[in-house]
Amino acid sequence: MVVWSSFLEIGVASIDIEHKHIIDFANLIEQTSELQQARLYDDKMLNNLFIIFRVHFQKEEYLMSRLKYPAIAQHSAEHETMLTRFKICMSDYKAVQNISPLMELITEWADIHITKHDMSLAAFIQQNKLVKQKKA
Ligand SMILES: [Fe+2]
Ligand SMILES: [Fe+2]
Predict the structure, then answer these.
(1) Which of 72, 93, 100, 110 has the most CB atoms in a 10 Å sphere around its CB?
(2) Where are the beta strands (DSSP E) in the chain?
(3) Around ion ligand 2, which residues have CB less than 5 A away?
(4) Do residues 56 and 22 lie in contact, with contact meaning Cβ atoms separated by under 8 Å?
């Protein structure tokens, strides 16, 4: 289980909402993967999570491009690497029904990508004040 906390909030409401949604969805998949009768739905749920993950990255990349964010190349490359790793986790799950590698990836995304790359993007957004910010 990946635990959401205020430590993961970057202060841009539209992005924070998606981060929390992704974490909630991943936790739900982990829970259902433990139920034998839910196994039939796991592939579809994983595919949906992948799409949500990818669309979230695309939105950040569009935002970075619109704001001419200086670190766009590095941040986008991190997204690409994570999507590739996500696909490997999906294949592994289909082969051996082990959800742990995917949950480790989501944990790493939350603990490292959000707190480093997304937090830097949020600081840049707040400097530019171009996106509606989360109220304190
Ligand atoms: Fe993000
Ligand atoms: Fe990101």
Answers:
(1) 110
(2) none
(3) 60, 118
(4) yes
Taking only the tens place, the pLDDT of each residue in 124-135 is 988 887 655 555
Task: Give 30 Cα–ligand 2 centroid separation in angstroms.
Answer: 22
CA distances from 78 to 16, 36, 81, 97 (A): 18, 34, 5, 26
Rounded CA-CA distance 6/85 in Å is 26
Does residue 41 surpass a pLDDT of 80? Answer: no
Q: Could you give the domains of the chain? A: 11-128 (1.20.120.50)
Q: How far is the CA of 99 from the centre of ligand 2 (A)?
A: 23
Interatomic CA distance for residues 29 and 31, integer angstroms: 5
Band (47; pLDDT cuts 50, 70, 90): very high
